[in-house]
Amino acid sequence: MAERVALGVVGVGHLGAIHAEKYAARDDAQLVAVYDVDRARAREVADRFGCAVAANLDDLLSRVVAVSIAVPVEHHEEVGLAALAAKRHVLMEKPLAASLEGGERLAAAARSAGLVLQVGHIERFNPVVRELRHLVSEPRFVECHRLAPFAGRGADTDVIFDVMIHDLDLLAYLVDDEIVSIDAVGVPILSANIDIANVRLRFARGCVANVTASRVSLKRERKLRIFQTDTYVSMDFDAHSALVARRDPSEAPMPGAPLDMSAIRVEMREFSGADPLAAEIDAFLAAVAGESAAAVSADEALEALRLASRIRAAIEVPAVAPRRP
Predict the structure, then answer these.
(1) How many CA atoms lie within 13 A of 8 on its CB side?
(2) Fold equal for 5-122+277-297 and 127-273
(3) Are the C-beta atoms of residues 141 and 224 closer than 8 Å to each other?
(4) CATH number of 127-273
(5) b or e along 3-21 (b: 16 or more beta carbons within 10 Å of the residue's beta carbon)?
(6) Residue 235 has what pLDDT?
(7) CA distances (Å), 145 to each of 67, 177, 216, 225, in order?
(8) What is the pLDDT at residue 322?
(9) Is-contact 231 244, C-beta < 8 A?
(10) Which segments in the chain show pLDDT lower than 50?
């Protein structure tokens, strides 16, 4: 049996604790230690999963080969650079950094050190995306809705970097084309940052994407719909299911012939028992072992950051001066 990989987790809030749980359950990995500035929380998670509590970040890094980083986004760059300087492979929760410049510094550090820096854009590991990507050839219209009630997490950044960035990464993955125009609006509701945003993106080859993200909604929804010639795909990321409607190629309509809905084939695909985070960690450990490249590389994550930064800039317009009476 291959030697187990020594792993640690920095930041064991909601997401970090799940990383710790996944590592602790594996046969090919050993959860050695966790670290969090909240010592009581670190002790609680360590006791739950049978590992040590590191005294500080340097202590944790001295014990491991690779680390998951799930600290608030404002600390991603600082903690990530420390881990890379210590020659440790990194699985960074999304987004890569709080700014494009910070993300570029992280990517450069990993590249220079020859280390794995994988970014946790978890929808890439959703079986709905992995199974249906081959159906997407030349999308003409994409609609994304990623809505959730306020959970009190992620308010250190805006909804574009915290929530919408999932769909921005998927757009780069599925559409793969230059964006030529951006029309965006965003509003702060419960935090000092933008909590709900909508953007309309136009791509060079004609595709249009309408993307809405909210962390202050009354209901939760995570769906992406794609329209292209002869095909419609509706993906439900929470349910791990998809509806696919396609015209039967053997029944292409004749010019001038009336529409015939019997030529449309509709199927529902379900992927029960899916665990995208486990798949993400599988990919990370394979990259650490040198069996494959990082499944979502720092360079790919930078593309999402660049687009998020452009959208943020499109929203941040100067305030209009009040009219004089």
Answers:
(1) 27
(2) no
(3) no
(4) 3.30.360.10
(5) eebbbbbbbbeebbbebbb
(6) 95
(7) 31, 21, 13, 9
(8) 45
(9) yes
(10) 1, 317-323
Q: Quick check: 115 and 87 in contact, CB under 8 A?
A: yes
The residue type at 84: L
3-state secondary structure the chain: CCCCEEEEEECCCHHHHHHHHHHHCCCCEEEEEEECCCHHHHHHHHHHHCCEECCCHHHHHCCCCEEEECCCHHHHHHHHHHHHHCCCEEEEECCCCCCHHHHHHHHHHHHHHCCCEEEECHHHHCHHHHHHHHHCCCCCEEEEEEECCCCCCCCCCCHHHHHHHHHHHHHHHHCCCCEEEEEEEEECCCCCCCCEEEEEEEECCCCEEEEEEECCCCCCEEEEEEEECCEEEEEECCCCEEEEEEECHHHCCCCCCCCCHHHEEEEEEECCCCCHHHHHHHHHHHHHCCCCCCCCEHHHHHHHHHHHHHHHHHHCCCCCCCCCC
Beta bridge partners of 226: 142, 233
Residue 89, exposed/middle/buried by CB under 10 A (0-12, 13-18, 19+)? buried
What is the C-alpha to C-alpha distance for residues 203 and 198, in angstroms, rounded to an integer?
A: 16
5-122+277-297: what fold? Rossmann fold (3.40.50)
Q: d(Cα 281, Cα 179) in Å, to the nearest integer?
A: 31
Distance in angstroms (rounded) separating the CA atoms of residues 245 and 7 = 44
Q: Name the one residue in this structure whose structure tokens are 């993955």.
A: 173
What is the pLDDT at residue 313?
Answer: 93
Chain centroid to Cα 155, Å, comes to 17
**Every domain of the chain and the residues it spans:** 5-122+277-297, 127-273
How far lies 141's CA from each of 173, 209, 247, in Å? 15, 6, 17
